[in-house]
């Protein structure tokens, strides 16, 4: 145990159930996925900006060492796959014929990894949480189904009969879902024999003090260490009985005696909505929180252990059934539970539209948050190709509400009965989505091709609109327009006030469809009234039959951002207290905007404010419109921004910036961090003239056109970004190129490189002014793009703010500007952990002056890379700066206080 190793002697007997003859076989050795920093697991963790694996010490990473693989006593030839060292290819001595079986013997040692990588492994307290800890055969169903571990907990193996004989010290307690056959107690160790029939999962926990509890219900027991929220034993027993009875009612009896649920399961698949607030805020009753955690994890493990589909390729079916029955459970036992729980009844909060949302409304909300930002992905896409947000949340929820949508369309409980019988018929048998599709189609006469062809297999959105309506005393003629390119149906309701008169499913609306229906005293037409259809826009779903006036949505003012209410044109108001610069100081204002929790295509924002230090009215306003596309052109955004703020003491600047931006992203690989952006904008800048500045070269007002193309690939291991920028103004035009590269080596040493080159194509600005010149260490920022707190300061702490731009130097040298051309190179490399050494070199040239060679060097402290850093100059053209007077004034800082920028640290892990 001290070496964190398991010595394994294993026999695998595999039966060939296909009609193919097998020359070679494949084995899964997922413990070996921890062995290097280049495995698929390591790459996956790095893609999600988790540094813990890449920066870990070698002794913390696991591996497998195979000493022999034999068949009938003869050594077999085997090898790890070239790019998948956690998969083993074995050449059999004799081919495996159909309906025949092979038996091979393996001897190997497993080095258990640290649990901080994936939660499985050796914990800080010395406990062992084991999953995928021994070698297993891969599935062959006409072709080999093997793939690498990517921390998705989705190993696909054939069901098997397992017998384990485990030796472990007496100081450890073993917890498993397998049946205990016998236990032999020796002076220093225990020998435990376990068996299991028809298993496809084998989690095992060895802990010094087990916190697992067993709750027995009839001939079935749940073994769990999920937090019980402080409930009494009798409450947990009653909840467990209700949960198991509910699942058995819909799924049938569990084929094994015990079901193991761990806190790891709960942490990896939590009940979102329950866990987003601190524990001291009691949003929901304790029994409800525990009940939903228990239900969600029981559903997950039951389905994972009995519905044998390929979880890498067909995870949607497992997720869909889990969420579907989770929703039905809440509808049955907690029909009045709100998403905000007890918070929904608190004064101030209950006025929000979010306080009216039922608990199950969160599933559509989360799925639409991906769809509204064009980040949704097909449900049939391989699990390892999904964004983290889609893997963990959006696709799971979309699958569940998709089954709810299908259920409502088919009606008469056909879907629910089909799910029950399908799971009963296919329990512990290899199956697939195709089989489920055929099974379901045999149970209904309705055409449900749209569900499998459009809803599952594409990322097509759903959005319908009622266009033209004419009415008589007896009938209504209306046109329904399909705003998206799909074959999905929509429900049409006729209402009298809020009472439903009729409900009709309208199918095959390729572009638009006109139909006539009985009026039956209806005074309102509504599409998707009960919201079973996950539409991206429900604001265009209704028409009043009372007249034109009633079809206009009233204006509604709300305090703070809220969930969208489709019956109103909402304006949100939010008080603002900000500190944007030292000249305005703290500002107090209000933001009026239309942005809801779900992203809108058209947004506006007005922010008037009062600045206490400058004693003036400041603020900004913006309008923008976004169009999303289902190709590599990800989106187009165009809009205009205007602002009025201080740029120096008692001096103000008015900016107007219309722009259009084209965003590019790999449509077939949203996990790729490569982004491209082309931005065109016009800037109209008017500044107060500084009467204290007697220089005739001062130009308070200017207008210019700017084009910038940016290409970035922001990854933890390899980061690179470059852009080309072109500016043209009445008196100058200039072009610049910027390239950045960052590499994190296997030795944990980091190398940062940045190259910048810029040149004036024309420069007729006043020779005495460097306002538009290239800067070596602190750009003048005449475009007002950088978050300077004291942009006009030339001394004091705010003049020491550093921004990676233009020359990128940290030392303030005697040639800070260039009005002809400049080229610089900035280098950083790791000294120890987050402490780096930096060096900058460059050449810059101004008119009527010779080129100047410049350099500086020093120490960089990365507290949060790109967000909070400190630079200590050491040596430059000025000599040994560290030994010079007023050294504290030479230190530079990089920091940001913008919460949206800081939120990017979280967002890049999920999107």
Describe the main β-sheet briefly: 18 strands, mixed
Radius of gyration: 32 Å
Mean pLDDT: 92
Stretches where pLDDT falls below 50 for ≥5 residues?
Answer: none
The helicity comes to 10-25%
Tell me the strand percentage band. Answer: 35-45%
| Shape verdict | globular
From the helix content, strand content and strand pairing, which structural class follows?
alpha+beta
Number of helices: 12
Distance, first to last CA = 39 Å
Write the layout of secondary structure elements.
Blueprint lengths: L4 E11 L6 E7 L11 H8 L3 H4 L8 E9 L2 E2 L1 E5 L2 E13 L4 E11 L9 E2 L5 E3 L5 E2 L1 E2 L3 E2 L14 E10 L3 E4 L2 E7 L3 E11 L4 E4 L5 E5 L2 E5 L8 H19 L6 E4 L1 H6 L17 H21 L8 H19 L27 H11 L16 H23 L3 H13 L6 H9 L7 H8 L7 E8 L3 E8 L7 E7 L2 E8 L5 E7 L5 E4 L14 E3 L10 E5 L9 E11 L6 E8 L8 E10 L4 E13 L4 E16 L2 E15 L8 E14 L13 E13 L4 E12 L2 E13 L5 E14 L10 E2 L41 E2 L2 E12 L2 E11 L6 E13 L3 E9 L2 E2 L11 E4 L3 H12 L1
Parallel strand pairs: 19-20, 28-29
Antiparallel strand pairs: 1-7, 2-6, 2-10, 3-4, 3-7, 5-6, 8-9, 9-17, 11-12, 13-16, 14-17, 15-16, 18-19, 21-22, 22-25, 23-24, 23-26, 26-27, 29-30, 30-31, 31-32, 32-33, 33-34, 34-35, 35-36, 36-37, 37-38, 38-39, 39-42, 40-41, 42-43, 43-44, 44-45, 45-46, 45-47
């Amino acid at each position: 145990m001290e070496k964190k190793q398991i010595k394994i002697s294993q026999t695998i007997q595999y039966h060939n159930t296909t009609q193919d003859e097998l020359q070679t076989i494949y084995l899964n050795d997922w413990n070996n996925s921890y062995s290097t920093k280049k495995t698929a697991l390591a790459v996956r963790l790095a893609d999600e900006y988790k540094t813990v694996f890449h920066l870990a010490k070698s002794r913390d990473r696991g591996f497998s060492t195979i000493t022999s693989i034999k068949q009938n006593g003869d050594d077999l030839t085997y090898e790890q796959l070239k790019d998948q060292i956690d998969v083993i290819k074995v050449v059999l001595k004799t081919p495996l014929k159909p309906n025949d079986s092979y038996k091979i013997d393996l001897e190997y040692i497993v080095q258990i990894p640290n649990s901080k990588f994936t939660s499985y492994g050796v914990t800080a307290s010395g406990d062992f949480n084991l999953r995928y800890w021994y070698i297993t055969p891969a599935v062959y169903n006409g072709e080999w189904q093997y793939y690498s571990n990517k921390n998705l907990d989705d190993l696909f193996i054939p069901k098997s009969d397992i017998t384990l004989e485990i030796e472990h010290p007496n100081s450890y307690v073993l917890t498993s879902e397998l049946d205990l056959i016998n236990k032999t107690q020796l002076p220093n160790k225990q020998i435990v024999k376990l068996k299991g029939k028809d298993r496809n999962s084998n989690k095992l926990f060895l802990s010094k003090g087990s916190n697992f509890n067993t709750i027995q219900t009839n001939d079935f027991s749940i073994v769990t260490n999920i937090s019980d929220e402080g409930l009494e034993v009798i409450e947990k027993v009653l909840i467990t009985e209700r949960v198991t009875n509910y699942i058995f009612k819909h799924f049938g009896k569990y084929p094994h005696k015990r079901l193991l649920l761990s806190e790891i399961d709960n942490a990896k698949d939590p009940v979102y909505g329950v866990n987003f607030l601190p524990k001291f805020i009691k949003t929901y009753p304790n029994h409800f929180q525990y009940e939903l955690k228990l239900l969600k994890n029981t559903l997950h493990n039951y389905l994972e252990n009995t519905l044998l589909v390929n979880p890498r390729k067909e995870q949607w079916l497992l997720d869909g059934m889990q969420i579907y029955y989770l929703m039905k459970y809440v509808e049955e036992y907690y029909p009045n539970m709100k998403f905000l729980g007890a918070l929904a009844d608190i004064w101030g909060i209950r006025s929000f539209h979010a306080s009216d949302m039922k608990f199950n409304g969160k599933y559509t909300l989360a799925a639409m948050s991906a769809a509204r930002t064009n980040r949704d992905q097909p449900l049939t896409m391989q699990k390892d190709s999904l964004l983290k947000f889609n893997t963990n949340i959006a696709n799971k929820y979309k699958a569940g509400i998709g089954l709810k949508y299908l259920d409502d369309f088919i009606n008469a409980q056909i879907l629910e009965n089909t799910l029950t019988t399908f799971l009963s018929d296919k329990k512990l048998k290899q199956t697939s989505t195709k089989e489920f599709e055929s099974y379901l189609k045999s149970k209904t006469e309705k055409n449900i091709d749209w569900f499998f062809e459009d809803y599952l297999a594409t990322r097509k959105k759903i959005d319908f609109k009622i266009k033209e309506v004419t009415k008589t005393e007896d009938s209504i003629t209306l046109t329904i327009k399909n705003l998206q390119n799909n074959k999905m149906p929509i429900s049409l309701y006729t209402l009298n006030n809020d009472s439903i008169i009729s409900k009709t499913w309208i199918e095959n609306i390729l572009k638009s469809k006109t139909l006539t229906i009985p009026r039956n005293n209806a005074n309102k037409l509504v599409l998707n009234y009960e919201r079973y259809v996950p539409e991206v826009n429900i604001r265009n779903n209704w028409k009043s039959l009372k007249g034109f006036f009633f079809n206009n949505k009233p204006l509604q003012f709300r305090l703070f951002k809220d969930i969208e209410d489709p019956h109103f044109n909402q304006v949100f108001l939010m008080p603002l207290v900000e500190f944007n610069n030292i000249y305005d100081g703290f500002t107090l204002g209000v933001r009026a905007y239309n942005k809801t929790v779900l992203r809108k295509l058209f947004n506006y924002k007005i922010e008037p404010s009062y600045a206490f230090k400058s004693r003036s009215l400041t603020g900004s306003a913006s309008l923008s419109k976004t169009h999303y596309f289902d190709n590599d052109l990800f989106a187009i955004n165009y809009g205009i921004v205007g602002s009025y703020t201080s740029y120096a003491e008692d001096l103000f600047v008015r900016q107007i910036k219309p722009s259009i931006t084209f965003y590019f992203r790999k449509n077939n690989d949203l996990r790729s961090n490569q982004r491209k952006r082309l931005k065109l904008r016009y800037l109209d800048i008017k500044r107060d003239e500084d009467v204290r500045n007697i220089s005739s070269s001062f130009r308070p007002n200017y207008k210019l056109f700017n084009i910038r193309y940016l290409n970035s690939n922001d990854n933890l291991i390899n980061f690179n970004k470059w852009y080309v920028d072109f500016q043209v103004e009445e008196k100058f035009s200039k072009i610049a190129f910027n390239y950045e590269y960052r590499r994190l080596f296997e030795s944990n040493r980091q190398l940062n490189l940045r190259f910048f080159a810029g040149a004036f194509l024309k420069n007729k600005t006043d020779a005495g002014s460097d306002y538009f010149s290239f800067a070596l260490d602190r750009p003048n920022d005449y475009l007002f793009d950088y978050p300077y707190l004291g942009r006009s300061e030339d001394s004091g702490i705010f003049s020491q703010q550093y921004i990676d731009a233009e020359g990128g130097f940290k030392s303030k040298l005697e040639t800070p500007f260039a009005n002809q051309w400049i080229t610089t190179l900035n280098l950083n490399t790791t000294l120890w952990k987050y402490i780096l050494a930096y060096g900058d070199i460059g050449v810059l040239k101004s008119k009527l002056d010779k080129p100047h060679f410049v350099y500086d060097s020093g120490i960089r402290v990365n507290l949060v890379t790109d967000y909070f850093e400190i630079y200590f100059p050491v040596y430059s053209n000025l000599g040994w700066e560290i030994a010079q007077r007023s050294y504290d004034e030479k230190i530079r800082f990089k920091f940001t206080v913008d919460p949206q920028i800081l939120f990017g640290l979280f967002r890049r892990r999920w999107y």
